[in-house]
Amino acid sequence: MNRRLQGVGMTSRRTRERMINRLQEQGIANPAVLQTMLDTPRHIFVEDAFASRAYEDTALPIGFNQTISQPYIVARMTELLLERGPLDKVLEVGTGSGYQTAILAQLVKRVHSVERIYPLQQRARRCLQDLRLRNVRLKHTDGGWGWEEYAPYDGILVTAAPPEVPEPLLAQMARRSILVIPVGDGRAQTLMRITRTEVGYQMEDIEPVSFVPLLPGMVS
Ligand code: SAH
């Protein structure tokens, strides 16, 4: 790993170890998730001015009024998605910085990720290339419609909150697949896990969360 990826001081592996200890205290238990977050340089996904804060347990600005999700949320959502076993094909809605994408890419076979803000997508693409993660396909589109071309998915993870679960996402779930999504208006949202069964959809409320809204349309 080169020097930028490796990090020094507040961006070093030592700092990432402290983040992992914190995540364990917060109840994250999946060893593969913890190991992947230990190995992945989160500081390259934030703007240089924030690099020294990349491993704090907080969301940070990534431009365009958007934020990189806090480490706990990334870990929790990933854990919820993977709890019932390994997944082949996962759709992520809201690439943002690409950090959650990078974590997923190391834990599942193939990741498809969509983002409505083109410059964010481009920056995420560069970071994923720097990490040599080649099992990721990115698309600039409104993810409220999912990504039909590669459906159905074994897992879908949404990192922006719609007021209600978008129908197209439910339709693009394979049987026995899992959708992890924050749902709600304004700041009061609930993280939900939805499992597609043989006969319908099983909904679970997980915990209160605060995400940026899932917005319609695209920004070039
Ligand atoms: N997982 C990202 C989270 C970024 S914030 C990270 O940790 O960096 C949520 C992202 O969802 C933003 O980049 C925002 O532009 C994007 N987003 C919001 N509505 C969207 C939509 N309808 N389709 C695709 N992306 C959307």
Descriptive labels:
220 residues; alpha/beta; Rossmann fold; 7-stranded mixed β-sheet; two-stranded antiparallel ribbon; 7 helices; 26% strand; binds S-adenosyl-L-homocysteine
Determine the number of helices (DSSP H or I, runs of at least 4 residues). 7
> Which series of helices and strands comes N to C?
HHHEEHEHEHEEHEEE
Going across the biggest sheet, name each strand in turn. Answer: 5-4-3-6-7-8-9
How many strand segments?
9
What ligands are attached or bound here? Answer: S-adenosyl-L-homocysteine
Whole-number tally of structural domains: 1
CATH architecture call: 3-Layer(aba) Sandwich
Spatial separation of the terminal alpha carbons: 33 Å
Q: Any low-confidence stretches, pLDDT <50, length ≥5?
A: none
For the biggest sheet, the summary is: 7 strands, mixed
Secondary structure category:
alpha/beta
Annotated CATH topology: Rossmann fold
The percent range for helix content is 25-40%
Model description:
With 220 residues, the chain is an alpha/beta fold. It has a single domain, classed as 3-Layer(aba) Sandwich (Rossmann fold), CATH 3.40.50.150. The chain has seven helices and nine strands; from the N terminus they run H-H-H-E-E-H-E-H-E-H-E-E-H-E-E-E. The strands form two sheets. Strands 5-4-3-6-7-8-9 form a seven-stranded mixed sheet. Strand 1 and strand 2 form a beta hairpin. The chain is globular. The termini are far apart. The structure holds S-adenosyl-L-homocysteine. The site of S-adenosyl-L-homocysteine has 23 residues, from strand 2, helix 5 and strand 4.
